[in-house]
Amino acid sequence: MKLHTKTLFLAFFMLVLLASCKDRPNAKEPEKIAKEQNKANQQHTVEQKNADYSSYLVDVVHDQLFEVELGKLGKRKSNNEKIRDFAGELEKHHESRLQKLNALASDMMYAVPHNLSDKQWDEIQDLEKTNAKNFDQKWLEVVISKHNKAADVLIDAINNVDNYNMRTQLNETLQEVRSHLEAATFIKNKQLK
Predict the structure, then answer these.
(1) Is the distance from CB of 30 to CB of 15 less than 8 angstroms?
(2) Local structure of 165: helix, strand or coil
(3) Overall pTM surpassing 0.90 (yes/no)
(4) Tens digits of per-residue pLDDT, 44-77?
(5) Contact present, 74 and 139 (Cβ < 8 Å)
């Protein structure tokens, strides 16, 4: 911030120096140059801040993609009606959240993933291979584990991001993740015992 202030002060000083010259060719030219420089500095500062935030958004979107697939798998494979209903809610909520996060990424000119990683696909495939008797328990364990990790990522991002729109989206996402975590824990502790 000090460097940015010093640069602006130096630019202002140079403008004053140029304005005091008697044989200047065009009185409007220094103003135009200063405005262009200020605009470039402002864009550079904004781009630097946004670049710091992009990794958070990439991580959050990546988690959301995985949770959508977990929801689809739970709906398709579970024999427990409560889990199928919960899995449907997971899929619906995370797809909706993905749309909002993708819109935010677009507004901030960030690239975000649109597919699962190979590691995530392997996790889904391993879970899909689980026999029907053990599927519900294992599926809930993965949902709880992934939502705990997602909450940690979101809290870290919220604590480090000062962009209002992004922070708002992250807070809303965290609320949904905590709600899902609470519901999954309740189902695991009360419905499967």
Answers:
(1) yes
(2) helix
(3) no
(4) 555 555 545 888 899 999 999 999 999 999 999 9
(5) yes
